[in-house]
Amino acid sequence: MTATVVPTTDEIILLDNGAERRKRFSEIFGCNAYSNTAFTTCTGTITNLAGLGITSTAAEVNYTTDVTSNIQAQLNGKLSTSGCAANSQLLDGIDSSAFLRSNTADSFSSTLTMATQKALVANNYGRGVYGLYSASRYQHVWSMGTSYNLCDDGTGSGNLYGLAFTHTNVGGQSKANLSHQLLVMHNGSTCSAIGSGYMD
Asked: What are the beta bridge partners of residue 143?
Protein backbone atom coordinates (compact mmCIF):
# COMPACT_ATOMS: atom_id res chain seq x y z
CA MET A 1 0.00 0.00 0.00
CA THR A 2 1.64 3.22 -1.12
CA ALA A 3 -1.20 5.76 -1.19
CA THR A 4 -1.72 8.22 1.65
CA VAL A 5 -3.97 6.83 4.36
CA VAL A 6 -7.24 8.70 4.89
CA PRO A 7 -8.21 7.65 8.42
CA THR A 8 -11.87 8.63 8.13
CA THR A 9 -12.56 6.53 5.03
CA ASP A 10 -9.81 3.93 4.54
CA GLU A 11 -10.42 0.60 6.20
CA ILE A 12 -8.48 -2.44 7.31
CA ILE A 13 -9.68 -6.03 7.91
CA LEU A 14 -9.18 -7.53 11.35
CA LEU A 15 -9.66 -11.05 12.63
CA ASP A 16 -12.08 -11.06 15.57
CA ASN A 17 -11.93 -14.59 17.06
CA GLY A 18 -11.52 -15.96 13.52
CA ALA A 19 -14.20 -13.73 11.98
CA GLU A 20 -13.22 -10.88 9.62
CA ARG A 21 -14.19 -7.39 10.68
CA ARG A 22 -13.74 -4.16 8.71
CA LYS A 23 -12.67 -1.05 10.67
CA ARG A 24 -11.79 2.48 9.60
CA PHE A 25 -8.29 3.65 10.62
CA SER A 26 -9.82 6.48 12.71
CA GLU A 27 -11.84 3.94 14.73
CA ILE A 28 -8.63 2.19 15.80
CA PHE A 29 -5.91 4.85 15.97
CA GLY A 30 -7.89 8.02 16.70
CA CYS A 31 -9.08 10.99 14.72
CA ASN A 32 -5.61 12.25 13.74
CA ALA A 33 -3.91 8.94 13.07
CA TYR A 34 -1.05 9.16 10.51
CA SER A 35 -1.15 12.95 10.65
CA ASN A 36 1.58 15.53 11.34
CA THR A 37 -0.93 17.76 13.12
CA ALA A 38 -1.27 18.10 16.87
CA PHE A 39 -3.54 15.87 18.94
CA THR A 40 -6.08 18.54 19.79
CA THR A 41 -9.38 16.67 20.02
CA CYS A 42 -8.12 13.26 21.09
CA THR A 43 -6.48 12.19 24.35
CA GLY A 44 -3.31 14.15 25.04
CA THR A 45 -1.69 17.22 23.47
CA ILE A 46 1.53 16.73 21.52
CA THR A 47 2.82 18.38 18.38
CA ASN A 48 4.23 17.01 15.13
CA LEU A 49 5.55 13.61 16.23
CA ALA A 50 5.55 12.28 12.67
CA GLY A 51 7.55 15.31 11.55
CA LEU A 52 10.23 14.30 14.05
CA GLY A 53 10.35 10.75 12.70
CA ILE A 54 8.75 9.36 15.88
CA THR A 55 6.15 6.62 15.81
CA SER A 56 4.29 6.49 19.13
CA THR A 57 1.62 4.35 20.70
CA ALA A 58 -1.28 5.97 22.56
CA ALA A 59 0.42 5.14 25.87
CA GLU A 60 3.64 6.76 24.70
CA VAL A 61 1.76 9.85 23.54
CA ASN A 62 0.04 10.17 26.90
CA TYR A 63 3.36 9.68 28.74
CA THR A 64 5.09 12.28 26.58
CA THR A 65 2.22 14.69 27.15
CA ASP A 66 2.44 14.22 30.92
CA VAL A 67 6.22 14.75 30.91
CA THR A 68 6.10 17.88 28.76
CA SER A 69 3.20 19.25 30.81
CA ASN A 70 5.11 18.68 34.04
CA ILE A 71 8.23 20.31 32.61
CA GLN A 72 6.21 23.30 31.46
CA ALA A 73 4.58 23.57 34.89
CA GLN A 74 8.05 23.73 36.43
CA LEU A 75 9.17 26.38 33.93
CA ASN A 76 6.13 28.62 34.33
CA GLY A 77 7.07 31.78 36.20
CA LYS A 78 10.81 31.07 35.86
CA LEU A 79 13.30 33.36 34.10
CA SER A 80 14.51 32.34 30.67
CA THR A 81 18.25 32.22 29.97
CA SER A 82 18.02 35.76 28.55
CA GLY A 83 15.28 36.98 30.90
CA CYS A 84 15.49 39.84 33.37
CA ALA A 85 13.58 39.97 36.65
CA ALA A 86 11.43 43.02 37.37
CA ASN A 87 13.61 43.89 40.38
CA SER A 88 16.97 42.77 38.98
CA GLN A 89 18.38 46.31 39.37
CA LEU A 90 17.58 46.33 43.09
CA LEU A 91 19.68 45.22 46.05
CA ASP A 92 17.58 44.61 49.16
CA GLY A 93 14.86 46.67 47.47
CA ILE A 94 17.17 49.64 46.79
CA ASP A 95 17.80 50.84 43.23
CA SER A 96 21.38 50.36 42.07
CA SER A 97 21.66 54.06 41.19
CA ALA A 98 21.42 54.87 44.93
CA PHE A 99 24.80 53.25 45.70
CA LEU A 100 28.13 55.09 45.61
CA ARG A 101 30.74 53.80 43.19
CA SER A 102 34.25 53.23 44.54
CA ASN A 103 35.98 52.96 41.16
CA THR A 104 34.67 56.05 39.38
CA ALA A 105 33.73 59.68 40.07
CA ASP A 106 30.42 59.89 41.92
CA SER A 107 28.38 62.22 44.13
CA PHE A 108 26.02 61.87 47.09
CA SER A 109 23.20 64.00 48.50
CA SER A 110 23.04 62.77 52.10
CA THR A 111 25.40 62.55 55.09
CA LEU A 112 28.26 60.06 55.37
CA THR A 113 29.15 59.39 58.99
CA MET A 114 32.65 58.22 59.90
CA ALA A 115 32.36 55.19 62.17
CA THR A 116 36.09 54.89 62.77
CA GLN A 117 38.81 57.33 63.82
CA LYS A 118 40.82 56.89 60.63
CA ALA A 119 37.90 57.03 58.24
CA LEU A 120 39.52 59.01 55.42
CA VAL A 121 43.19 58.29 54.74
CA ALA A 122 45.00 59.69 51.69
CA ASN A 123 47.37 57.31 49.90
CA ASN A 124 49.57 60.05 48.45
CA TYR A 125 50.92 63.39 49.71
CA GLY A 126 49.03 65.77 47.47
CA ARG A 127 45.59 64.31 48.16
CA GLY A 128 42.93 65.74 50.46
CA VAL A 129 39.62 67.63 50.52
CA TYR A 130 38.96 70.32 47.90
CA GLY A 131 36.54 73.24 47.88
CA LEU A 132 35.01 75.51 45.24
CA TYR A 133 37.08 78.63 44.60
CA SER A 134 35.63 82.12 44.52
CA ALA A 135 37.31 85.32 45.70
CA SER A 136 33.91 86.67 46.77
CA ARG A 137 32.72 83.76 48.92
CA TYR A 138 33.52 82.27 52.30
CA GLN A 139 34.71 78.69 51.89
CA HIS A 140 34.19 76.09 54.60
CA VAL A 141 37.35 74.44 55.93
CA TRP A 142 36.23 72.92 59.24
CA SER A 143 33.43 73.31 61.80
CA MET A 144 33.23 72.02 65.36
CA GLY A 145 29.74 70.57 64.75
CA THR A 146 26.96 70.25 62.18
CA SER A 147 24.97 73.01 63.91
CA TYR A 148 27.65 75.63 63.15
CA ASN A 149 27.88 76.60 59.50
CA LEU A 150 28.62 79.22 56.91
CA CYS A 151 25.76 80.12 54.59
CA ASP A 152 25.49 77.20 52.18
CA ASP A 153 26.28 79.38 49.14
CA GLY A 154 29.22 81.05 50.95
CA THR A 155 27.78 84.55 50.82
CA GLY A 156 27.73 84.93 54.63
CA SER A 157 29.68 83.70 57.64
CA GLY A 158 26.59 82.30 59.38
CA ASN A 159 27.22 81.04 62.91
CA LEU A 160 30.44 79.18 62.15
CA TYR A 161 32.63 78.03 64.99
CA GLY A 162 35.69 76.87 63.09
CA LEU A 163 37.82 77.70 60.08
CA ALA A 164 36.93 79.38 56.80
CA PHE A 165 38.97 80.58 53.83
CA THR A 166 38.23 83.70 51.80
CA HIS A 167 39.58 86.85 50.13
CA THR A 168 39.23 90.51 51.00
CA ASN A 169 36.84 90.82 48.05
CA VAL A 170 34.12 89.21 50.17
CA GLY A 171 34.21 92.11 52.65
CA GLY A 172 32.31 91.30 55.83
CA GLN A 173 34.42 89.18 58.17
CA SER A 174 37.54 89.21 55.97
CA LYS A 175 40.48 91.36 57.04
CA ALA A 176 41.66 94.15 54.77
CA ASN A 177 45.10 93.94 53.11
CA LEU A 178 45.48 90.18 53.74
CA SER A 179 44.44 89.04 50.25
CA HIS A 180 43.61 85.30 50.48
CA GLN A 181 43.22 84.44 54.15
CA LEU A 182 42.33 81.76 56.66
CA LEU A 183 39.76 82.91 59.23
CA VAL A 184 39.33 81.55 62.73
CA MET A 185 35.66 82.23 63.45
CA HIS A 186 33.58 82.36 66.63
CA ASN A 187 29.82 82.32 66.00
CA GLY A 188 30.39 83.73 62.51
CA SER A 189 32.76 86.50 63.65
CA THR A 190 36.47 86.53 62.82
CA CYS A 191 38.74 86.24 65.87
CA SER A 192 41.98 85.79 63.95
CA ALA A 193 43.12 85.80 60.33
CA ILE A 194 46.23 84.54 58.53
CA GLY A 195 46.97 85.90 55.06
CA SER A 196 49.46 87.62 52.80
CA GLY A 197 50.01 91.28 53.69
CA TYR A 198 49.41 93.33 56.77
CA MET A 199 46.52 94.30 59.00
CA ASP A 200 45.66 97.89 59.90
From this structure: 162
Strand, coil or helix: 108: coil
Whether residue 158 is contained in a domain is answered as yes
What are the tens digits of pLDDT across the range 58-98? 655 666 666 777 777 777 777 777 777 777 777 888 887 88
Domain boundary (52, 75, 98) is at: 75
**Domain assignment present for 142:** yes
Helix and strand element counts for the chain (H, E): 2, 8
Q: Which domain range does residue 167 map to?
A: 131-200
Residues 183, 145: Cα–Cα separation, whole Å? 17
Domains identified in the chain, total number: 2
Beta-bridge mates of residue 180: 167
Query: Would you call 166 helix, strand, or coil by DSSP?
Result: strand
pLDDT along the chain (200 residues), means of 10: 73 80 72 49 50 57 67 73 73 82 87 90 94 96 97 97 97 96 98 87
Answer whether residue 112 is part of any domain: no
